[in-house]
Amino acid sequence: DAGVTQSPTHLIKTRGQHVTLRCSPISGHKSVSWYQQVLGQGPQFIFQYYEKEERGRGNFPDRFSARQFPNYSSELNVNALLLGDSALYLCASSLGVGSSYEQYFGPGTRLTVT
Amino acid sequence: GESVGLHLPTLSVQEGDNSIINCAYSNSASDYFIWYKQESGKGPQFIIDIRSNMDKRQGQRVTVLLNKTVKHLSLQIAATQPGDSAVYFCAENGKSSNDYKLSFGAGTTVTVRA
Question: Which residue of chain B comes nearest to A102, CA vs CA?
Fold first, then answer.
């Protein structure tokens, strides 16, 4: 069975550009969460979506946005990229929302902003 | 700010010995904790979890201990193997209104010596 998949694996962008990262959850999972992991730190929560609705938002600027599609896949968009946005962006999926549902992480997208 | 943190950023252990990784949290209302393992180039992988109504939980070669009095939890790995080399994170699955985001600590890098 396929796990959580993310694309692209790596990308390099220039300051001021925008980027779209994609995530496909495990089949049957209806919740997707996004995390940012800066080198040497733990992941930081960005967004959570469930049944196409935003269920949670972390402490990130409005340059960050996301959406979930009817097939439960998700996109994370970041506008006006800054050097500090360079990080590993992780997507996690779960069957539902709540502590009873284990979150399964994808391998991440490594974003480098120059 | 973060509600969880780890005591030591690195741990070197001899193959075959037991490993103990520690984590402190500050939110006394936290009711669910998870340990994750992250290998290089991969997303975090679930190891074991524990709820606040428990003091100890055992898995295969791993044990998690929770001390609510001092807000501390630990991960014990028995007979550490080279494949256990990774970064280990404790995380709190907190709940705020309708979301269940994971709040991660900074991580402990475990290196297993042959």
Answer: B46
What is d(CA B93, CA B79) in angstroms, rounded to the nearest whole number?
28
Alpha-carbon distance A109 to nearest alpha carbon in chain B (angstroms): 10
B87 close to B8: Cβ distance less than 8 angstroms: no
Residue carrying structure tokens 């550490």: B80
The predicted pLDDT at position B2 comes to 42
Question: Of A31, A37, A34, nearest to A21 (Cα)?
Answer: A34
Query: What is the DSSP secondary structure assignment for residue A25, as one 8-state letter?
Result: P
Q: Return the SS3 of B69.
A: coil
Residues B98-103, mean pLDDT to the nearest whole number: 72
Question: Strand, coil or helix: what is B83?
Answer: helix
CB contact under 8 A, B32 and A99: yes
On whether any CB of chain A is under 8 Å from the CB of B45, the answer is yes
- Residues from A contacting B (CB-CB < 8 Å) are 4, 33, 35, 40-45, 48, 55-58, 90, 92, 97-99, 101-108
Smallest CA–CA distance, residue B48 to chain A, in Å, is 10
User: Where is pLDDT greater, at B16 or B100?
Assistant: B16
B78 Cα to chain A: minimum distance (Å):
24
Per-residue pLDDT of chain A (114 residues; tens, 9 = 90+): 689 999 999 999 999 999 999 999 999 999 999 999 999 999 999 999 999 999 989 999 999 999 999 999 999 999 999 999 999 999 999 998 887 788 999 999 999 999
Of B22, B29, B75, the residue nearest B52 (C-alpha): B29
